[in-house]
Amino acid sequence: MAKQSTSALVQQVAAQLGLNLVAEFPFAQALRRRFRFDFADVERRIAIELEGGVWTYGRHTRPQGYIRDIEKYNIASALGWMLIRVPAHLAHKHLAQYIADAQRLLAQSAIQRALVAIRAANHATRDEIALLEQELAALKQRSKTREPEHASVEEANNKA
What we know:
Elements (H helix, E strand, L loop, with lengths): L5 H11 L5 E5 L9 E6 L4 E6 L11 H16 L3 E6 L3 H31 L4 H20 L7 H7 L1
Parallel strand pairs: 3-4
Antiparallel strand pairs: 1-2, 2-3
Helix pairs in contact: 1-3, 3-4
């Protein structure tokens, strides 16, 4: 079986994980910047960047490209984007895990923000707060054990 293109793989894995990706998404136009993400789920503000040329002195590892990427990633962070950086040569093996880890972090962050807001406003009962704290603890535990919550890339490729 021929190896799937990296772009097709990204779209396939993202679809399995419930992401709606747009390729080559421009994200800093209001700042008059021409930065684009390789892939982005605009609604969830999750961006995927495939970092190529790691071993071949590619654009991302040469001084000017590296500096420009730092600027791009800092702007993305300031604008509220979660950035998933994947070395392109590892995409076929580990992409699903990179994305799942990022989704888990987003879920943890959302629960933590909700807990802070609820405690500040005193709107929740102790039971509701305890339930959120349990959910957060479970997410953190899964992150430590890295339980797969999805089919692996290899399983998905074998089904195709």
